[in-house]
Each structure stands twice: as structure tokens, then as C-alpha cells.
Write a structure and sequence with these properties.
Glutaredoxin, single chain, about 270 residues, elongated, 8 helices, 5-stranded mixed sheet, alpha+beta
């Protein structure tokens, strides 16, 4: 890979996740202009769009939206020389640290933006990442499809990429889309992916069906930053959670005191 492609990939990896491309359009290399993510929270994905799974079978996206499970969606391509590998490796690292059995609560779907790629390549990529992941509870599909269907899906979620014919490579952003069980985009996450953020985004995408009461309390300490696609500490939430925990601790201490006092009185009588 020549220095131009390396430089462009580096810019894509290190630029701010959302908004930076439009803000710095005058400063970006010509090849990168228009390569960005436009947030479309609440956009509904067409679940009737047909794609081909790793076994070569045509399936609609709807077949992955079942059992009230949210879907973690990525758009990549399997012959990507650098960025896709960085992105998917980061995602694997984040999912590895999820609690045991947590993977049964969601699905992961990766769709290739390169309509020239086939099911055989998708199967090889899937096998490689499942081997790295080492999680039997996580269902992860790698799909290919026709150009028109890829473009419809990409446009719906605001994913803008560019093809370089001479290099036979794509310039694209790195983003994970969290989609509700009924097909609505609920969250975007940018690199690097961390387990905490993945869990928070899944709780949001599941409309609160995922996550324990404690996890939902912890979520109140963070606020989603749409600029860089990350969760950042939220001062008011931290203070509020501290207050809740203080009340709980005091209640436990009082309960123990009353219990011991009652036992002491009973012994005296």
C-alpha cells in the first residue's frame, strides 16, 4: 500500500468521529471530502433489503431482527487493507469483555460495502473473527450484497464512503450502528470501542430491556457525546448516583442497627 493510502487511512482513524469532516472540509485531502458519517438517529432501516449470508443464501435484514434483540451493525469490506481490521479488532476486544452469556441478548451484522465481494470471502472473514472472539454466545453474520441495496442501507444510516478505482479500495469512516429490534438507529459509536460504551449503547437500543438496575444507575453518570461517538462522565449524574448510593448505605446501616438492637432487647427480656 502506497504512502497516499496510508496517509488517508491514518486521517480517517485519528479524525474526530462525527462532524470533523464537514468542519474541516477545506483542509482535508480531496480524496477524503464527503467521507463521513451523518447521524440519523431514529432513522428506520428497510428490513426487507436482501443480502447474502456467509453460506451464500439470500436473506433479508429482517431475519436478524427477531426475539426483541437489538442489532449491532457495521459497514466494512473484507479486502480492506487497514481501517476495517483496526475497527473490527477493536470491536472484538470490547465484546470479549462482556459478561458471560450477554451475547445472547443481541446480534452483530457486518455488511460489505464492496458489491464485488462474495459469500466465500465473507465466510473466511467470519471464521477469522469468531476465532478471535472466542464467544459462542455471540451471533455474528458477515454479509455481501448488490450495490443498490448497499447504497440504500448506507444512505439510511448516514454512512458516506468513496471508491478509488485505480487502487480498488474504499475510503470510509469507522463506526458501529446500534439498531433497535424494530429497525431504528438508536446510537453511533466511534473508535476506540470500549466494553462500557458497547453495553450502554445496547441498553439504549434495547429500549431498556437489557441491563441490570445497577447498570442503568451507572449509565446516569455518563452522557452520550454525539461529536465523537463516545460516552463521557456526566457531573450531575455522578452527584445523583452518589446520593442514591449514600441513601442505600445509610438504609443498610440503619437496618443492621435496628436488627441488632431488637435482638439485644429480646435477649434482655
Amino acid at each position: 500500500m502506497n504512502s497516499l493510502i496510508q496517509s488517508l487511512t491514518f486521517v480517517l482513524c485519528t479524525s474526530f468521529f462525527l462532524g470533523t469532516f464537514a468542519y474541516a472540509e477545506e483542509k482535508l485531502p480531496k480524496e477524503l471530502r464527503g467521507v463521513e458519517v451523518k447521524q440519523k438517529l431514529g432513522a428506520r432501516i428497510d428490513l426487507t433489503l436482501p443480502f447474502v449470508d456467509h453460506k451464500g443464501k439470500e436473506r433479508t435484514l429482517k431475519s436478524y431482527f427477531a426475539d426483541n434483540k437489538p442489532v449491532l451493525l457495521t459497514l466494512n469490506y473484507y479486502n480492506c487493507p487497514m481501517l476495517c481490521t483496526i475497527q473490527l479488532n477493536s470491536l472484538v476486544d470490547a465484546m470479549k469483555k462482556l459478561p458471560k452469556g450477554y451475547g445472547k441478548k443481541f446480534r452483530v451484522v457486518t455488511v460489505s460495502i464492496n458489491h464485488r465481494e462474495d459469500a466465500k470471502l465473507a465466510a473466511a472473514k467470519r471464521k477469522n473473527y469468531l476465532k478471535q472472539l472466542k464467544r459462542k454466545d455471540i451471533e455474528w453474520e458477515f454479509m455481501t450484497g448488490k450495490k443498490k441495496h448497499i447504497e440504500v442501507l448506507s444512505k439510511t444510516v448516514g454512512f458516506k464512503y468513496r471508491y478509488l478505482p485505480k487502487k480498488k479500495q474504499y475510503l470510509h469512516p469507522a463506526v458501529v450502528f446500534f439498531v433497535t429490534p424494530d429497525g431504528k438507529v438508536s446510537q453511533y459509536l466511534g473508535l476506540p470501542y470500549v466494553t462500557r460504551d458497547v453495553k450502554f449503547a445496547l441498553v439504549t437500543a434495547s429500549k431498556g430491556r437489557l441491563g441490570s438496575i445497577f447498570e442503568k444507575l451507572i449509565m446516569s453518570c455518563f452522557i452520550y457525546n454525539s461529536t465523537d461517538g463516545q460516552y463521557t462522565p456526566y457531573a450531575y449524574g455522578i452527584v445523583r448516583l452518589s446520593g442514591v448510593l449514600t441513601v442505600i448505605v445509610l438504609a443498610i446501616m440503619l437496618l443492621l442497627f435496628w436488627t441488632r438492637e431488637r435482638q439485644r432487647v429480646e435477649k434482655m427480656t
